Model the fold of this input.
Amino acid sequence: MTRRIIYSAALVAFLAATALTLTSIIIPRWISWDSETASGSRIHYTYGLHKRCSSFTHTCTYFPQDEDCHGEDRYFCSMWRSVGFLMSFAVVMEGMTLIAFLVVIAGGKQKREQGWKILSGMLLLAGMIQCAGMALIAYLYDNDDRFFPGWKLDTSWILCTISWSVTVLIAACISASAIFVSPEGGYELILSEQ
Done:
């Protein structure tokens, strides 16, 4: 019963991390810029993995577009699209990890005692993929000329960071519980009377 409780708690935390991953992909706020005009109105630009939004035009457009990817900008586009791929791949890995969670929890004692190895590996892989995507965005933010002072890493980047951190922490907790928690349903020695 103890391992089932540990895996169930880990599953709840993992579902929360997965929700953060999905939210970070959907919301177009990986990098943003805010400015105030002389008249006092605010201008706000945001870059998402697949959209670029502007308060100036009040629209969101697909990003990066073909005209954004010519000459030296091809490097930026390749990196940005790679992040989109990595985050989509992370969602696929999280879906597979969810299935693994369900198999381990619903399986018998043997699956709960041995399933931690595969589950922890899948969690680590999903976390590392998200970490790579987050790191690429941070690299572009620091090194691409289009992000001059005033731009900032925004909500989606923070959600992604929290998501992969929680996912890696869950992998560590499951591994630690497999090593330190006694087997469930084991026999206890009866002290002999002397």
About this structure: The CA atoms of residues 45 and 89 lie 27 Å apart.
